[in-house]
Amino acid sequence: MDGDIGYVNVISLAFGRHGISPKNCEARGMAFRTLIGRRSLSYMTERIVRPGSASKGGMELIIGPMFAGKTTELLRRSEQRRSAGQRVLLVKSSVDTRYSRVEIVSHDQKREPCYSMKELSPLLSEAIVSDYDVAAIDEAQFFPDLLSFCLEWVDRQKKTVLVAGLDADCERRKFGEVLDLA
């Protein structure tokens, strides 16, 4: 994805295990910053693919294991974007029915109305794309068309995409297309 996008941020949240280490970041030309959260040790990495204006599009990946705070962080970043006057499209996988079918709900009970979808491709229509500046996707590992959706929104439409999802299953195997975005 070293095309014409403005930036890619990878936020890896972990309890005790380190998804992205300082050594890995250095080898990939990434800046490294350590953040201490309430309940977790978090590593935030940022790779500037091509500096430029916000109109270049960009992506922020929030990855980590279950209960790491991915949804909370996604909702926080979505609210920041809305506060800045951007129009945010919230989407979650229809597979996730734990708390609500029509809301993204974090473990600390923060709630936001959203679209619940099996696939993201219906959101590629020009009418929908033109109505939003940012797409925020929760439980991204369940979308079979995540990569193609993000490529369209970021590379071709020059929009921002916030993606939250598991990076691996309980056996530490790649889960869905989330890691294909990094």
UniProtKB/TrEMBL annotation:
In its UniProt entry, what is this protein called?
Thymidine kinase
Q: A GO biological process this protein is involved in?
A: DNA biosynthetic process
Enzyme Commission no: 2.7.1.21
Q: Which GO terms describe its molecular function?
A: ATP binding; metal ion binding; thymidine kinase activity
Question: Into which family does the record put it?
Answer: Belongs to the thymidine kinase family.
Q: Which UniProt keywords apply?
A: ATP-binding, DNA synthesis, Kinase, Metal-binding, Nucleotide-binding, Transferase, Zinc
Q: Which reaction does it catalyse?
A: thymidine + ATP = dTMP + ADP + H(+)
Listed PANTHER family: THYMIDINE KINASE, THYMIDINE KINASE, CYTOSOLIC
Q: Look up and give the organism this protein is from.
A: Rhodosorus marinus
Q: Does the keyword Transferase apply?
A: yes
Q: State the Pfam families in the record.
A: TK (PF00265)
